Amino acid sequence: MPTLVSHPDEVKVISRRFGQGAAQLDRYLELDGYKAAQMAIDNGPQWVIDTMKASGLRGRGGAGFPTGLKWSFVPKVSEKPKYVLVNGDESEPGTCKDHVIFLHDPHAVIEGTLIAGLAIGAKTGFIYLRGEYRYLLKIVEKAVADCYAKGILGKNIFGREGVDFDIITQTGAGAYEVGEESALMESLEGKRGVPRIKPPFPAVVGLYGGPTVINNAETIASAPHILLMGGEAYAKLGSERNGGTRLFGISGMVERPGVYELPMGYSMKKAIYDVAGGVKGGKKLKAVVPGGSSCPVLLPDELEVGLDFDQMAKAGTMLGSGGIVVLDETVSIVEFALRTIKFYQHESCGWCIPCREGTDWIKKSMQRFYDGGGSTKDISNMQYLAENMLGRTFCPLGDAAAMPMIAFFKKFRPEFEAYLEGKRTAKHFITTDELVGVAH
Amino acid sequence: MPDVTFTVDGQTLTAPAGTLLIDACKASGIQIPAFCYYPGLSLQAACRMCVVRIEKAPKLQTACTTPVAEGMVVYSETPEIAQARKSTLELLLGNHPLDCPVCDAGGQCELQDMTFKYGAASSFYAEPKNHREEQKWSPTVYFDRPRCILCYRCIRMCGEGMDVYALGIQNRGSSAVIAPNIPATQSEDGLAHLDCEECGMCIDVCPVGALTSDTYRYKTRPWEMNHVATVCTHCGDGCKTTLGVRATTDGSEIVRGDNRDKSGINGDFLCNKGRYGFDFANREDRITEPMLKQPDGTFKTVTWDEALLFTGTRLKDIRDTRGGKTIGVIGGNRLTNEEAYLLQKFARSVLGTNNIDHHRTADFVTLAAALRDHRDRFASQHDNETAKAILLIGGDPTNQAPLTAWNLRTNVRLNRAKLYVANHAHIKLHRQAKSFLEIAPYGYGAIAAYLSGDDGAASSAATDIEKLAHFRDALKAEPELLILVGSELRAGDLRALIAYGLTLPNTKFALIGDYVNAHGAADMGLLPDLLPGYAPVVADHDYTAEYGEHFPTEPGLNLLQIFDAAQTGDLAALYIVNANPVARFSIDPATLANTFIVIHEMFLTETARLADVIFPAANLYEKSGSVVNSYGDLQLVKKAADRAGVRTDLELLVRVADRMGAEIRKLVPFGKRASTGLRADLGQTRGVQSGEADRHAVWLTANNLEPKLSPFDPFAVLDEIQRLVPGYDLLRLQLLSGNDQHLAPQAPADLIQIDETRRDLVLPADDTLFTSGTLGRYSPKLVELQLKYAHEPVGIPAD
Predict the structure, then answer these.
(1) Residue A311 and residue A272 share a domain
(2) Helix (H) and strand (E) counts in chain B
(3) Nearest CA to CA, how far is B11 from chain A (Å)?
(4) What count of Cα atoms within 13 Å lies in the side-chain half-sphere of residue A189?
(5) Residue B628 contacts residue B337 (beta carbons within 8 Å)
(6) Which of A197, A350, A368 is closest, CB to CB, to B176?
(7) Does residue A338 sit in the same domain as residue A324?
(8) What angle in degrees, to the nearest 10, is found between the helix axes of B649-659 and B337-345?
(9) How far is residue B625's CA from residue B619's CA, in Å, rounded to a whole number?
(10) Does A357 touch chain B (CB under 8 A)?
(11) Three-class SS of residue B797?
(12) If you placed Cys at B534, which of A78, B199, B662, B747 could pair as Cys (CB 3.0 to 4.6 Å)?
């Protein structure tokens, strides 16, 4: 069991049951478990949606769409069955928050799914786990089975006549692309994990053609807490138009890497220097990848920014999935850029031309550049390729590859040029342990 | 849907709400480039070439997935958009091999065209391209992976369009690749292969040269061919096929058949026969010189003069001594209308016989009789595209009439047409059927009776009586119905079915026959008892004066009776034009031992071997004229290829008649000064021989000149057809423009032509996807495909 980290600045809402054995149903019930779901049954769908809207909760997957609003888009009457779909395909490099939720508090996800189902009038929910999280599947499946045994899932749940809800679990096959909601639905339906054309959006035509609410696991797991504490109270924890708290996975070269729950709008600088204990070994900070590998990198002098969707966007980057990767002065950005584009080239689904060919050509050029065969013109060419991918691909994967690369080429051009002249600024590339070394 | 108004590049346009922007723009003459978009197939938004700027949208939007909306402001060509398209092309060209100088698609490649427009002329990649070896997927399909730009048109065409689903995608990212349905791990030779209908539609829709056909690849360049749009000779659907023709030392050979001219009756579609089944024309073993049978049974090539003189003399002698009644004439199903017409005129007015028939693949005569007073009830091929409900009873269009099957599938898929299928077999179209009724073996007569209200016939019509009743009720509830009838139904059964159909509101009918001009052969009077236009053979008729002294006024012998007569020694001569009755009707060669046989043929068929004279005949791709498909849609046939030594059947008939002493100007009204004030064009010699007669005729007609200078000009015969044949009131300009037009000649209502004892007079061809009667046996490609699929019927699902 990975060690949990803690810091006084943390506001524990979603993480309050971590480390307390809440994966066991009995323990979960002792910790106010499934009270929120029964409140939802008692108060009705409209109350749930109003509370969610009041909470200011925004999608924790990275896009930051207001959750209550999303739920309210689902038509009340539908010929086809409605579904709740939990996106647990957490694959963004640097991100490991859903992992901890599934590990320590799987019932929160189940209860959140149930609440979302009650809110939109769905009878079935799906929990889709990342293929590499197979070991978490056992935990989630046990939790689901316990709920069926206890009458929390299935027919007439909590002994309420006519209230039915089923949950089905499923894992992916190892594709980053299916983290995109419509690709996830394709994958769940047994097809190639390629995104769908939008519109129609999932709330209208989703899984198996039925209206579907698809939310990130953390978003869904927040719902029970919000119902218990009230929407307004939750909203007050965060910053303007960014309600509540969220889990941040701070990794890389910091003294105390880990998953911390911080209020929305918390200072990025404090998060790195206070919460995570600053750069490891007293080294100098070089750069910060603020919200998973697709977010444009920030320089040390750009850290005076609050960790919420709006402030990060203003700073020219994204809050993303909350995976903060800290790089110290020993890191070669050329290597880091190569590692980044290799990931996206490998994960491009190949559906559209700009992403399929663009990631491939940047990767090829970057590899040659790294191997010592580069020229100054390559830097401009790669930047040109990335800029021409941006905003022109079928789904956001192309943007996710283009944005960080553009930032590397723009912000670290001197380092790329110095690399050409043989003045390598780093001794080695950061190890996987350092990059993902959270909670292990 | 109501119209919405929007602007594109400052131009105000209107289109029905819901129209895709790319289509709305195209309708207004604004071309938006696209690789993956293909009208009628599912949307992909994958190539990103059709991106446009729409006001208020943060990013460029794909025109192929955006429906037009009221007040939408669109920019389709700005520097930003041009840059987006250019960079997409740069990315594609990065891996695309620049082997354009040898690529099949060079010169007609969408990637070339777009690169030309957007100027992605320079490359800045230092890395080598991803190369893979070309793969042979089937006897007809090759795949050159590096050329593929992954537009997925082939996958969708194969799946959605053809309902075959033989293509898919493997791997992901830059390794993504189109893959056929038999993976290397499951094939005997360790290579990936296709198991499909071999239609070649994937090759047709490929915007680049990634999919190429075995018959054409690396043979020539597109611009080195003449492209002639004519009608496919094989089934009865009458698809337009565009033949690519190249000059050779002995004429010109057909190098390619495709559907690049999508203006035909077949729209987007062409099947394997139309695409590859032209190769019989190029065979080395074609008969190219007249041949006479020697006393020892061998054939000797002779001069044209010798053959014609011998034939003319013998036939005249037989007519004058034993009488025209001892002469039989059998015509083919692949003659032009003009040839079929001239053949029966030759038989009746020169040979003096009504013993004339053809291999009837469907009972068009009964159809014409049953719909005597319902001219508007003859369905056109186009009705398959739009009919709201269709009853397909008998037949297997997937195999016998692929265009019909395509139209039905497309209509069901895009318009949600309701398809009712009643068949003794689980034909593939049952997959599109709203309702499928399994008919008992030999139950077609019973089903026709049951539908007409005879409940007693139920048990012999189908095993599932309850379903049968539901089926009839559902049909009755349809406000309009297209009834497609397979050739299993004939004579009384067909009459009963049509009588039933006429009790329903708004029904239309069509009969699915086989071969390009089977319908025309019947229309043109290759029948013992009916003249062109189904006019009965009687003493006083319009034709009597025209056809002259030898014209017999008694009905003659039909095809089966002709051979009966041979057996009894009453058949002195048999004149056969492009037909193989000996094989088709299993005639014992011994019965023809004492019959003088003349044949026009391309190959030494079973029938040709028995002939005394063989004239080397041209095929449909080597002549001009008109043909009529199963539905009665008339189309123009254009001369595409040529082979030194062969003659069209039209010319052969005229030359034989000439040697018999017939008055040629009476047989073919050519060069006459018409009462319309047309004058003979004495300065022109271009005609049927050059293959430009048709285009030339437009010019001549426009200039008030008389185009018909030669007795070999099919249009001279067409003049007479238009003048004399009821129902052939066609528009000449429509024909010459390459458009199809629907004709509905009618037979006498009280006609009972086929009695129950000789039902085999109508003999369904039962061709499959890869057979085409005798002709199909001489197509190397079709034979190769037959062998490949010999043990597995194609397109029939396992259930």
Answers:
(1) yes
(2) 28, 33
(3) 25
(4) 18
(5) yes
(6) A350
(7) no
(8) 20
(9) 12
(10) yes
(11) coil
(12) B747
**Is A156 in the B-facing interface, judged by CB distances under 8 Å?**
no
Q: How far apart are CA A63 and CA A403, in angstroms?
A: 15
Q: Which CATH number characterizes residue A215's domain? A: 3.40.50.11540
What residues of chain A score a pLDDT lower than 50? 1, 427-440
pLDDT bin (cut points 50, 70, 90) of residue B356 is very high
Q: Which residues pair with B679 in a beta bridge?
A: B705
Q: A392 vs B126: CB contact, 8 Å cut-off?
A: no
Distance CA B651, CA B642 (A): 14
**Are residues A161 and A308 part of one domain?**
no
Q: Is the Cβ of A368 closer than 8 Å to some Cβ of chain B?
A: yes
Q: Does A354 touch chain B (CB under 8 A)?
A: yes
| Nearest-angstrom CA–CA distance, B765 and B773 | 7
At B691 the pLDDT is 45
Question: B44: which chain A residues are within 8 Å (Cβ-Cβ)?
Answer: 197, 351
Band (pLDDT 50/70/90 cuts) for residue B701 is low
Provide the pLDDT for residue A324.
96
Q: Which residue from A minimizes the CA distance to B80?
A: A388
* A172 shares its domain with A296: no
This prediction's pTM: 0.92
Nearest CA in chain B to A399: B59
Q: Is A86 part of a structural domain of the chain?
A: yes
Specify whether A291 is located in the same domain as A212. Answer: no
CATH number, residue A261: 3.10.20.600
Rounded to a whole number, what is the distance in Å from the CA of B287 to chain A's nearest CA? Answer: 53
**pLDDT for residue A437:** 39
pLDDT single digits (tens) B85-111 = 999 999 999 999 999 999 999 999 999
Contact A358/B at CB under 8 A: yes
> What CATH number does the domain containing A350 carry?
1.20.1440.230
Whether residue A97 is contained in a domain is answered as: yes
Q: How confident is the model at residue B690 (pLDDT cuts 50, 70, 90)?
A: very low
Interface of B with A (CB under 8 A): 43-48, 51, 58-60, 65, 83-84, 87-88, 91-92, 94-95, 124-127, 149-150, 169, 171-176
Question: Phi and psi (nearest 5°) for B359?
Answer: -70, 110
- Is A301 part of any domain? yes
- Say whether residue A91 is in contact with chain B using an 8 A CB cutoff: no
Mutate to test the interface with A, among B36, B37, B48, B61 (most CBs of A within 10 A): B48
Does residue A30 form part of some domain? yes
Is B550 a residue whose pLDDT tops 80?
no
For chain B, give the mean pLDDT.
90
DSSP letter at B661 equals T
Tell me the chain B residues in contact with residue A178 when contact means C-beta distances shorter than 8 Å. Answer: none
Q: What is the pLDDT of residues B214-268, one digit of tens each?
A: 999 999 998 999 999 999 999 999 999 999 999 988 889 999 999 887 889 999 9
ipTM reported for the complex, 2 dp: 0.91
Cα(B533)–Cα(B366) distance, integer angstroms: 13
Tell me the domains of chain B and their CATH numbers: 3-77 (3.10.20.740), 93-213 (3.30.70.20), 304-359+519-670+738-742 (3.40.50.740), 364-512 (3.40.228.10)
Given this model, what pLDDT does residue A223 score?
Answer: 97
Please, which residues bridge with residue A285 across strands? Answer: A328
Same-domain status, A186 and A292: no
Determine the pLDDT at residue B719. 85
β-strand partners of B264 = none
Which amino acid appears at position B594 of this protein?
Answer: N
Q: Which single residue is written with the structure tokens 């909470």?
A: A55
Domains in chain A: how many in total? 3
Give yes or no: residues A215 and A308 share one domain. no
pLDDT band for B682, please (50, 70, 90 cuts).
very low
User: B174 vs A357: CB contact, 8 Å cut-off?
Assistant: yes
What's the domain range around A156? 25-237
Domain boundary (A313, A328, A343) is at: A328
Amino acid, single-letter form, for residue B262:
K
Is the CB of B88 less than 8 angstroms away from the CB of A350?
no
From the list A350, A359, A391, the residue facing B150 with the nearest CB is A350
Q: Which residues of B touch A352 (CB under 8 A)?
A: 45-48
User: Do A49 and A175 have their domain in common?
Assistant: yes
What is the reported pLDDT for B675?
47
Q: How confident is the model at residue B695 (pLDDT cuts 50, 70, 90)?
A: low
pLDDT in tens, B475-507: 999 999 999 999 999 888 999 999 999 999 899
User: Scanning every residue of chain B, which has its alpha carbon at the shortest distance from the alpha carbon of A362?
Assistant: B125
